[in-house]
Amino acid sequence: MIVLKRFYTRSILRHIRYPYRTNATTTQRKPDPFNIEYDPIKQAVIYPSELIIQNKKYPTDSWTNVNGHILSRIGQNLHQQKNHPLYHLTNRLRQHFYQYYDPRKLSPKFSIIDDLRPIVTTEQNFDSICIPADHVSRTKTMNYYINKSTLLRAHTSAHQVDLIRSGLNAFLCIGDVYRRDSIDPTHYPVFHQCEGVQLFNKEELFIENRNVRGDKDYLQIFGSNEHRDATKQEGHTLEAVKLVEASLKKTITDLFKNLFPNAATLNSRWVDATFPFTHPSWEYEIEIDGKWYELLGCGIMEHSVLENSGLSKDHIGWAFGLGLERIAMIMYGIPDIRLFWSNDSGFLSQFAFDDSTRAVRYKPISVYPQCINDLSMWMGKTIIDPSDFHDLVRAIGGDLIEQVVLIDEFYSAKKQRHSQTYRIIYRSMDRTLTKEEINMVHKDIESHCKQQFGVEIR
Ligand code: DAH
């Protein structure tokens, strides 16, 4: 009996709400860019005969259950967007894993793939990694199907077999994954995962084997009398499994020591788990402020996954899959998973830095709207240093100032003068500001600028 992952069991019990259901008859809806309509009389979603997603056509059928809101997330690739927290985390994963070096190939051991399209086949998402035909994780209630044989990947494990088949024996695969789920502070139907895989042949696994005097085949990965039990799969020798387990656990422990540098005080634990694609399997948890967080699933890869990848009986490997949002939320103190999708500059500006190893704590942004006012000025004798301008603005606007950004600067040969334009973003932590109130502060800033810097407002 396969024990279900918590994600999967949770969502099956949920009612599925299509967008627009409640207000379909009363409010004007925007036309859906994918031509997906809701028929309020039949109370059903009406799909066109084919969906066009990123310029590719997919026929729809009775399995189709995607919606425009979800489809619009495809291609956003938050993990590739500069200055996004998931981008910094991806950089840190990259920097960490590039440290492992393969002296024979004169290159890093791990290849890092972060741009595979999230539209996959059921073969990739399920069959290739031994998820049985009747497994509950395949249901429509848990996944976004484009049609019976095509879906938005539910995990990055969907690419294991293709990547091994392409010749890789150590890699990370990072990308967006999609699961039908409720939306709350820790669940969102789109999130990001990082899959890790490392394979070993006999020489790589038993480096010491050469030194066993007189019998270099003393240690083996495979044995003919090995049966499956709690510690290993049929065919695997216990010594091989234990060495791969040690490599896996060391790799993951080292990664988290790097991500959470105060790791001396970081408690962690391995919890036995069950996945269709690994055996034995574990989950890794860390303790923060007395609370345990599950960060990843991992294990010794099922040998049939390696067979599906075209390998014969000469390799054994480990795999893990971790959720990026979960880690970023802990790392930066981000309280709500929905913030990752925010275009609010109050959120994004907190992650605008080049060094991804920088330790930052997220400061909550206000729930009240921003108000943006630009200020353009011709410089007097001297050019304003932006930090002086920031000081002046903050001195006048106080806590109403959320951000100050120099958005334009140029020299006019005709006027023989420098120009600067600053964007001032106003926002209160406790109320919606009125236009009049902001204009007063803004005017005040202008007149102080004239006095203090001798500028002319444009
Ligand atoms: N694919 C699993 C999930 O999304 C996570 C996972 C578990 C990945 C174990 C692995 C693994 O590679 O070995 O829940």
Automatic annotation (TrEMBL):
BP term (GO), one: phenylalanyl-tRNA aminoacylation
Ranges of residues in domain FDX-ACB: 366-458
SMART domains: FDX-ACB
EC number in record: 6.1.1.20
Keywords, comma-separated and alphabetical: Acetylation, Aminoacyl-tRNA synthetase, ATP-binding, Ligase, Mitochondrion, Nucleotide-binding, Protein biosynthesis, Transit peptide
SUPFAM superfamilies in the cross-refs: Anticodon-binding domain of PheRS, Class II aaRS and biotin synthetases
Pfam families: FDX-ACB (PF03147), tRNA-synt_2d (PF01409)
First-listed, main subcellular location of the protein, grouped into a coarse class: mitochondrion
GO annotation, cellular component aspect: mitochondrial matrix
Segments forming domain Aminoacyl-transfer RNA synthetases class-II family profile: 174-364
Subcellular location: Mitochondrion matrix
GO molecular function: ATP binding; phenylalanine-tRNA ligase activity; tRNA binding
Record field: catalytic activity: tRNA(Phe) + L-phenylalanine + ATP = L-phenylalanyl-tRNA(Phe) + AMP + diphosphate + H(+)
InterPro entries: aa-tRNA-synth_II (IPR006195), aa-tRNA-synth_II/BPL/LPL (IPR045864), Fdx_antiC-bd (IPR005121), Fdx_antiC-bd_sf (IPR036690), Phe-tRNA-synth_IIc_mito (IPR004530), Phenylalanyl-tRNA_Synthase (IPR002319)
Protein biosynthesis found in the keyword field: yes
Coiled coil: none
Function statement: Is responsible for the charging of tRNA(Phe) with phenylalanine in mitochondrial translation. To a lesser extent, also catalyzes direct attachment of m-Tyr (an oxidized version of Phe) to tRNA(Phe), thereby opening the way for delivery of the misacylated tRNA to the ribosome and incorporation of ROS-damaged amino acid into proteins.
Oligomer status and interactors: Monomer.
Similarity field: Belongs to the class-II aminoacyl-tRNA synthetase family.
Protein name: Phenylalanine--tRNA ligase, mitochondrial
